[in-house]
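User: Okay, second chain of the day. Same drill as before: sequence in, structure tokens out.
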Amino acid sequence: MKRFNIKIFVAGIIVLVGSTTPLISILITGLSGLDAIVLVALLTGFISIIGIVLKVIVESSQKTRFYLTEKREVPYREFLSIMYEIARGKASADDPVTLEKMWKVFENITLWGSDEVVKKVILYKEAANNNADAHTILLKVEAIIFEIRRDIGYSNIGLEEWDLLRIFLIDVDDVKKGKS
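Assistant: Same drill. Structure tokens below.
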């Protein structure tokens, strides 16, 4: 499902207003003979209706966003949990149990993950399937984590490459230099 895009929404309103301008001028001409109080009441009602419609659209978008965020939380959390287990040495990336967990997580990300997270998972899987070095694999994992954070609302502005990996890896500088 697409995210609510305010730019597209505003452009749509402009097109709607632009296409109804002749209708509005006809209405104004037709209503010009009415009493000022009636015109004010009609204008107030029209503005109220537009406000209600906009409110319903925004609330619907927020409900959808909240629903998807709830659904995405589980696979995103499971992915991070597996990465932490591997980093702590409690699981191996080659272990059949770990691989089965990863497949289940990827299945859920396929269904509930944002397009951007799915793309990052694909890049990670391609690197893993092509026997990429640890440096590349770690950067792919971090790219997924960055995208997960972005998807749930964080800007990641103050974070740089390798920062998120420092949370669960001790030897990040060694890995960066190619020692691990």
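Residues 97 and 141 are 19 Å apart (CA to CA).

User: Thanks, on to the next one.
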